[in-house]
Amino acid sequence: MSMHQEGEMGMSEDYRVELTLDEELDENHIVIQCRSQTLGARILSHLNSLAGDRKRLVVKQAEEYVMVQKSEIILAEVYGKELTLYTQKEELKTSKTLSSLMGELSKEKFVQVSKSSVLNMEMIQRVEPSFSGNLVARMANGMRVSISRRYVPQLKNMLGI
Fold first, then answer.
1. CB 19 within 8 A of CB 1
2. Dihedral of CA 119/102/154/69: which sign?
3. C-alpha–C-alpha distance, residues 113 and 105, integer Å
4. DSSP notation for 111-148
């Protein structure tokens, strides 16, 4: 596929754009190749702005794709190779990894609290001390989530405590 685009100073530029599908890549892995670092940075900037603007998350279920408002996610937990997203209305199970999920969520609203859990800061109702320096968060849906010692300082910083 060829793309013709007007350059910044009215000069026209011709780009050759190719899309190659590689089923060996992870689900959310995208490879962009270009010769110019400037062009590569512009492309990444555009992609990041598009990804950041999305208010919904696409979750692949067995035979369908479910759209979830990011603001409605209470927490996400991994057990084995399955990620479960909890909202007020439902639990969605997917094969998405926790790290790929974190890449799609706002760092200001979502915080990782253990190797297997991510919480929506706006859905935390209270935080209580637990044994051996851990904390426990009580979420809007009533779930109690353990916060590992390793993640306590980050959570306290985000909560302003």
1. yes
2. negative
3. 14
4. EEEETTEEEEGGGEEEEEE-GGG-EEEEETTS-EEEE-
Largest CA distance in the chain: 65
CA dihedral of residues 129, 133, 136, 137 (deg, nearest 10) = 90
Q: How would you classify the pairing of strands 144-147 and 117-120?
A: unpaired
Q: pLDDT tens track of the chain, all 161 residues?
A: 434 443 443 344 677 778 788 888 877 777 788 888 888 777 776 676 565 557 888 888 777 888 899 999 999 999 988 999 999 889 999 988 999 899 888 888 999 999 999 999 999 999 998 877 789 999 999 999 999 999 988 888 888 88
Tokens representing 8? 């910044």
In the chain the beta strands, taken as DSSP E runs, fall at 2-6, 12-16, 56-60, 65-69, 73-79, 82-87, 91-94, 110-114, 117-120, 124-129, 135-139, 144-147
CB 144 within 8 A of CB 136: yes
